[in-house]
Amino acid sequence: MMPIPGVLVQSLAERKVSPCYQDDASQTGSPIPEDIWHHICSFLPLKDVARAARVSHVFLRSWRCHPNLTFSKTIMGLSTESRGQGKITRDYNKKIGNILKNHSGIGVKILNLEFYGPYNLKTSHCLDTWLQIALTPGIEELTLTLYPKRKQTLDKENYNFPWSLLSNGSGNSIRALNFLGCAFRPTVDLGCMRSLTSLSLCFVHITGDELGFLLSNSISLEILNLSCCVEIIFIKIPCMLKHLSHLTVSDCYVLQVIESKAPNISSFTFDFKDRNVDLLLGESLQVKEIEICHPCVLRDARTMLPSSTPNLQTLTICSIDEESSTPMLPSKFLHLKYLVITVIECAFPAHYDLFSLVSFLDASPCLETFDLDVRMILHEHDMNVEDLSQLEGIPGHRYGNLRRVRITGFCFRKSLVMLTCHILENTPSLECITLDTCGGTACSGDEVVSCYPRKATFVEDPKALKAIQTYIKGKVPSMAKLNVVEPCNRCRGVDV
């Protein structure tokens, strides 16, 4: 037999074997005890273990106590086509019920369950029964994904997860909870979840108070992801979560305040496309990485982050609406090395000055990489620029550590050309600058089958290329490489 990684096989003489396993070995003629067969089967996918169960009683018993249970239509070998979905779903649910009914309920470590609506009292009872079988002490990971059917939506509370199942001892061992499309209503008597390190809630009905009960009982939590939770108005993260290092919050539609007192968060992602939320991060000395998207984010990031996150090293910003150009301020990002800025086209005012983004560069003495993605609509006064005399002699800081610059969506906008020239004139350490006139939507190699250029690409590309030739190429330092990405022949043949 080939060795299996992580499996230590000892001879019968070297290990103590329970009488029942010795009897089973004598009956089957196999020299390997049944507990080792169980361990071997735990490495196999669910479908393979089910097939093996037809071979012998040993494999059948292994199947009935398999520790990793993953249920999806693909895993169960059922079609996902729309025709006949009602019957397929009924068959799927019946198979899950039979498997769990025959499962011993002992030793389940991972349960990954996808469930398909409709949701009513009968299906809720089925889910409750299945979860009761699987959620026993020793469970380590639970992923519950509930898909709506027809007019039922994820915004509607379709199924209420029985949180009391986590109070029977299983909550002490569980390390990861992942919920999508259900309600989760823990109360103050939830009980300790001392092993929980990862919590992900997406389209989950839970209030800020209920989330607080959960967090206060999860002192080992390291990762917290909250997405589209439609009832959370405030998020309060207590100081006792000393292990929390990664926090992600996105599109919680009624959220107004995020207040974090967790002392060791190192990565923070915040994504809200149409709402301002108050961020109270305190003195987040350990934050090294932030990804943030919300209205007026350029102004807020430049104003707030240098003082609240003084040790920031990676900053990713997506701006979808700015009332004014980015302010010039004396505050610094003293440790920032990697900066990514994306500006979305239709939400920006015509008067926005892209050159004002130099405020971030001037504030970042250690910056090594700068990526700018410009997705803005050009205005008439930009497309007819003839006089760029202001490009000469603009005073500015020296960017002694900046080595790589990429501008995606480079166009003949005066302020963008000025910004590019300013960087070239003040960056003696530059190694490479890439100017992508395609907006990142066209192919850049033979391996790409299809091209999806924007219509504006073919209008602006000749002007952008002329600007590069006239104003930029001559300013590239001798030791730096200039890469220009333009539409390929295949792109130019696409009917847009």
From TrEMBL:
Gene3D superfamilies: 1.20.1280.50, Ribonuclease Inhibitor
Name recorded for this polypeptide: F-box domain-containing protein
A Pfam family reported for this protein in Swiss-Prot or TrEMBL: LRR_At1g61320_AtMIF1
Originating species: Lolium multiflorum
Every At1g61320/AtMIF1 LRR domain range: 99-488
Domain of life: Eukaryota
Domain F-box: 32-63
